[in-house]
Amino acid sequence: MTKQKKTAQKTTTANTAEPRKAPASSTKPTSKLGLIEALLRRPEGATIAQLTKALDWQPHSVRGAMSGALKKKQGLTITATKTEHADRVYRIAG
Question: Could you tell me if 31 and 75 are in contact, meaning their C-beta atoms sit under 8 angstroms apart?
Fold first, then answer.
């Protein structure tokens, strides 16, 4: 004869329920690439100077991350516009 296993029943109450997570759009980005993407998605976009200050990176590193990780790997379309007396402003199109 074999013994039958007893199955423990879980009882959940309102006090033991897991807390709900906030929607992803209202939370701050957790990675540096996420921060770059969030800054580029703003309606006003971001300049290289703003990105380097926010990330504490060199300008060539910011441009490389935009080109490699965002454009090539994630497939995002990044546009750059330049006015006559201002820096180039980068934005994610779409």
Answer: no
66 C-beta neighbours (distance < 10 Å), count: 23
With a threshold of 0.70, does the pTM exceed it?
A: no
Whole-angstrom Cα distance, residue 39 to residue 46?
6
> CA–CA separation, 44 vs 14, rounded Å?
44
Distance CA 53, CA 56 (A): 5
Domain boundaries, the chain: 31-92
Domain 31-92: give its CATH code.
1.10.10.10
CA–CA gap between residue 45 and residue 50 (Å, rounded)? 10
Region 12-18 average pLDDT? 57
